[in-house]
Design goal:
This protein is an alpha/beta fold. It has two domains: 108 residues, no CATH class; 138 residues. It contains ten helices and five strands; from the N terminus they run αααααββαβαβαβαα. It has a five-stranded mixed sheet with strand order 3-1-2-4-5. Helix 7 crosses helix 8. The longest helix is centred in the C-terminal third of the chain and has 18 residues. The protein starts with 5 loop residues before the first helix and ends with a helix.
């Protein structure tokens, strides 16, 4: 069913018992909302649905008198301190905007909304790396170790997984679960959260699942400057027990690199005894 205006849509959703919620402030990282066409409330006041709808007494509906209030809830809010001056022409006076009781209660429970400019200052600065990082990594979770390696498209996944399993087994551990990290998520780099800071946040969230375990990193971000790379990975994944510049595919064809990996792993095994 097509609706001519936003008021039409809200009117029929209200008759169906669907309650709408609108944020008073823009959500961090949310895409901009479209401009809603409300048309005339008088036209809707005289409309009747094609078929009568019986609704339970406990459900609320949006009647024409309430539509002006809903308009205010989805209007563009007044700019916060430090906002772009170009956006000021599209803002409205938030003090004059009516607030639905349910929305006000939600905001009271959530607490004050932070200024995005100030919240950025609370986040530690990340070192300078490539403008757009990419990753295709595999993760193997053991009881005491976590193995993270870049995956090569030139080598079969089965071969790389088998080698990872052998490494974990050689350390006297066993694989509990596996995973894949693919970044970026979207091809469009302008999608909010699809940047390096979004990747950093993803790795931080992932690192919570192996807190307290020793991390062995193979071939992660090999093209980045050494110092910036190590700092970036440490801030994202935590301390790395082993950090080598080659991945599983390189190990499969280079016995010297296997020996180098083993020499780096042996001190970890001694410390566990």
């Amino acid at each position: 069913m097509q609706f001519g205006t936003e008021e039409h849509r809200q009117f029929y959703l209200g008759l169906a018992g669907v309650q709408l919620w609108y944020a008073r402030q823009p959500q961090p990282g949310a895409a901009p909302s479209p401009e809603f066409d409300f048309g005339s409330t008088d036209a809707i006041a005289h409309e009747t649905p094609a078929e009568p709808v019986v609704e339970p007494a406990t459900e609320r509906k949006i009647v024409p008198q309430q539509l002006e209030r809903v308009k205010g809830l989805i209007a563009t809010p007044a700019p916060v301190s430090g906002a772009n001056p170009e956006d000021s022409g599209r803002s409205t006076d938030s003090a004059a905007r009516p607030v639905a009781p349910s929305v006000a209660k939600t905001q009271a429970e959530m607490g004050p909304i932070l200024d995005p400019a100030k919240s950025e200052q609370l986040t530690p600065a990340l070192p300078v790396v490539s403008a757009s990082l990419s990753a295709h990594w595999g993760i193997w979770f053991g009881e005491s170790f976590v193995l993270i390696s870049t995956l090569s498209s030139d080598t079969s996944d089965q071969l790389q997984s088998a080698l990872a399993a052998n490494i974990v087994k050689a350390m006297g551990d066993r694989i509990q679960s596996t995973g894949i990290i693919q970044w970026p998520v979207f091809n469009n780099v302008n999608v909010p959260g699809n940047d390096n800071r979004g990747f950093h946040g993803l790795l931080q969230e992932q690192s919570r699942s192996f807190a307290g375990k020793q991390v062995i990193a193979l071939g992660l971000m090999p093209d980045e400057p050494a110092e910036a790379r190590l700092t970036w990975l440490s801030q994202s994944l935590g301390s790395l027990s082993v950090d080598l510049p080659f991945g599983l595919a390189s190990l499969a064809t280079a016995p010297a690199r296997k020996r180098q990996l083993w020499e780096n792993i042996k001190p970890l095994l001694v410390s566990r005894r």
